[in-house]
Amino acid sequence: MTLRDRTYFISDMHIGAGYIADRHEHERRLVGWLRSIAPTAKAIYLLGDILDYWYEYRTVVPRGYVRFFGALAELADNGVKITWLKGNHDIWIFDYLPSEIGLTVVDGVLDCMIDNRRFVMEHGDGVGEMRRSYRMMRSLFRNRFAQWLYAAIHPRWTVGFAHRWSKHSRLNPGFIYPDDIAHDDPLMKFADRYMQENGHVDYFVFGHRHIATDKTIAPDSRLIVLGDGFRLMTYGVWDGREFRLEKMKNQQNGI
Q: In angstroms, rounded to a whole number, what is the distance separating the alpha carbons of residues 50 and 57?
């Protein structure tokens, strides 16, 4: 019998994105990964932008994601603790996924203990994005009245617009994936400030940047950016003693 003693971390799958060549195969591969970790997983942290777009209506469910949601539900039904931290692409998760799947949704910084180690997690846009225009847009998207107005627009207009916007920004000729983060990066500054105000943290874990990196930032303190789950296909795993960044194998028959 395999001991379920590992905690997994993944971000930025962007399931359903128009810039992914074969969206159905991408979803199947991720489902295959979820099923491959099921025997050892006691907890999974989804650090945002898991879906490229999601708006949760009161009485209807957006099309797609069936295999992925089913795999999450199967894990939850088998006792795996699933925590979903909202990103900038999946801001509008409300109560449907928590109630149907049995997962916990967090909007903002999560500070928690895992196997007697302190982890601080966030998608990365809320603590590492300094552009004023972006922060204003982020605040608008979280405004309840703005959400109410957006929900009144028929999905035939909003869904297509959201996917085109995402695809355009990702395929913009000026868009590049960075190689690493600098010592004066906003994420590094956040981590330093957070420990000054709140005490020692063993692991800071972020997504959003599409970089896979693991940096020592203080004695016995590390900052990890998870990479992503559509280009790099990377994720984090904590076994109770060591945190590692790993790359997904090409799972077969993940449906």
A: 18
Cβ-based burial of 120 (10 A; exposed 0-12, middle 13-18, buried ≥19): buried
State residue 118 phi and psi, 5-degree precision.
-90, 120
What is the widest separation between alpha-carbon atoms in the chain?
A: 53
State the first-to-last Cα distance of the chain, in angstroms, to the nearest integer: 24
- β-pairing, 212-218 vs 221-226, is antiparallel
Dig out the tokens for 15 from the structure.
């399931």
Pairing assessment for the beta strands 212-218 and 203-206 based on DSSP bridges: unpaired
Would you tell me the crossing angle of helices 66-77 and 23-37 to the nearest 10 degrees? 10
Render each residue's pLDDT in the chain as its tens digit; 255 residues.
568 899 999 999 999 988 898 999 999 999 999 999 999 999 999 999 999 987 787 787 788 899 999 999 999 999 999 999 999 888 888 889 999 999 999 999 999 999 999 999 999 988 866 667 666 766 766 767 666 666 666 666 666 656 665 665 555 555 567 778 888 899 999 999 999 999 999 999 999 999 999 999 999 999 999 999 999 999 999 999 999 999 998 754 433
Report d(CA 94, CA 55) in Å as an integer: 9
Write down the pTM of the prediction.
Answer: 0.88
Please give the structure tokens belonging to residue 100: 């149907």
Distance CA 100, CA 64 (A): 15
